[in-house]
Amino acid sequence: MSKRIFVILALVALAAVAALGASGCRAWGGGTAKQAKAAPKRTYHCPMHPEIVSDKPGDCPICGMRLVPIPSASPKPAPAAAGGAGAPPVGSTTDAAGGPGQAPMGEMPGMPGMAASPSRPPGTPLPSVLDLGVDRARLAGVQSAEATQGTVTRTVRAVGTVAIDETRVRQITTKIGGFIEKLYVNATGQAVRAGTPLFEIYSPELLAGQQEYLRARRSAAEFERSALPEVRRGGAELAEAARRRLELLDVPDDFLKRLDESGQAQRTIVFNAPFGGVVTAKNIVAGQRIEPGMDLLTVTDLSQVWVIAQIYEAETSAARVGRAARVTLPYNPQVALTGRVGLVYPTLDPDTRTLKLRLEFANLRDALKPGMFVTVDLGVDSATGVVVPDSAVIDTGARQVVFVETAPGRFVLREVTLALRADGRAVVRSGLAAGERVAVSANFLLDSESRLRDATSRSGEPNEDH
Q1: Reduced to 3 states, what is the DSSP secondary structure of residue 371?
Q2: According to the model, what pLDDT value does residue 133 have?
């Protein structure tokens, strides 16, 4: 009896297991082919812009991010009737895997009820008209400016160093030996003018030359009483030769004049500055013995100086002799001096890859000090035409576009051709007329919205892959 009961219980357990397996297969997808075909298709959306929904992988047309699969959700009850029980509320979206509807984030500015759309194929032109309205444009921070007629100049800016004009450097030497009795200019940096006394020298050679000249003068006066013209001429030539020797030794004219008047040889002689400038080197002291040709003082004329500027290799088009240049002082940017390029050095610095230019400037009021750093601006290119702020131009890489404001809050996308961009301004060669207004701020916001509207307008197009 117990054996029969055990067999019956075993048969009941096998039947239960079989029934459970059949129901599990149906619950886990083990349905018919018709049921498998009716299963919802997997969809994708942008994590940053959930309103962008596509039925295939791709990129977001707004930010370019990769679309990710939308997690599956349990199906919602089917609506009984339009506006009846079970129908979704007006303005709401369908489930994450459902068809297109209003964007999950709500209406975008200027885009009520925007529908999700697949990514925009590359090369599709942007919409040409964008009507935001005055209020939305103001809230978005969109500002416009008028295009005007003008000229824009592109400049090359470089750092320059003020240097001494080498052609204005003079050395004070003597053609005689002697001793420095007194120094009138006794410090480096002291300014001197032409004719200013520099030093006083005692020279035995000059003293002998003076005595020889005075004797020649007395002899010439005695020969003047001779009846022979040759004797009179010889005496005069002898005195003239003695005076000429003193002149060749750089004896000043005023000293010779006093010598003629007094008829007495002077023990010392004062040498004056032959030109004006600033003492930039001093190699003598009082009481020092000097020799002919010895470098005593160096006087430099700083009324004109050089500025050595360095420009990069890519900017060598600005290196042209005679090109105008402007220098701005570091301690007073309001002061600007104008000059020209005097020399383009023939070699390039291999370490810094820069080219040196020598600029020549008049040193008004000694504003430029040798060794000072200054800012150099070289005018390179210039263009005249319709000028707009540089922020108005959007460079896509293949073209340049601007948003032209045709009415308050209404913008038209227009392609333009630029002639020059410099100093925050752009010269438009074609595509824009003077007097038109262009958007100069929030341009990328306008560009993004135009792309969104383009994606919205394409949401109803059939997919070519289906």
Answers
A1: coil
A2: 79
Is residue 430 over pLDDT 60? yes
Closest CA to 183 of 302, 291, 279: 279
Task: Specify the pairing of strand 44-45 against strand 68-69.
Answer: antiparallel
Handedness of CA 113, 115, 116, 121 (dihedral sign): negative
All CATH 2.40.30.170 domain ranges of the chain, comma separated, are 156-165+302-382
The string of DSSP codes covering 63-80 is T-PBPEEPPP-PPPPPPS
| Residues 195, 185: Cα–Cα separation, whole Å | 12
DSSP 128: S
Contact 384, 153 (CB under 8 A): no
Residue 332's contacts (CB-CB under 8 Å, 6 or more residues apart) are: none
Q: How far is CA 443 from the centre of its chain?
A: 23
Fold of the domain built from segment(s) 174-300? OB fold (Dihydrolipoamide Acetyltransferase, E2P) (2.40.50)
- Say which residue the tokens 């005692």 belong to: 202
SS3 string, 230-286, reads: HHHHHHHHHHHHHHHHHHHCCCCHHHHHHHHHHCCCCCEEEEECCCCEEEEEECCCC
Q: Say yes or no: domain 129-151+383-457 is CATH 2.30.110.10.
A: no
Q: What is the CA radius of gyration of the chain?
A: 48
CA dihedral 281, 287, 292, 298 (to 10 degrees): 10
Residue with tokens 């002697």: 178
Q: In which residue are the tokens 């349905």 written? A: 31
Nearest-CA neighbor of 455 among 68, 92, 66, 111? 111
The whole-angstrom separation of Cα 180 and Cα 188 is: 17
Average pLDDT in the chain: 77
The SS3 call for residue 328 is: strand
Q: How far apart are CA 162 and CA 309, in angstroms?
A: 9
pLDDT in tens, 258-290: 998 998 999 999 999 989 999 999 999 999 999
Q: How far is 134 from 409, CA to CA, in rounded Å?
A: 4
In angstroms, the CA 193 to CA 196 distance is 6
Structure tokens at 172: 């004070």
Q: What is the pLDDT of residue 456?
A: 56
For 456, the 3-state DSSP assignment is helix
What is d(CA 371, CA 315) in angstroms, rounded to the nearest whole number?
Answer: 24
CATH 3.40.50.150 fits 156-165+302-382, yes or no: no
According to DSSP, the residues that pair with 45 across neighbouring strands are 53, 68
pLDDT digits (tens, 9 = 90+) for 203-222: 999 999 999 999 999 888 88
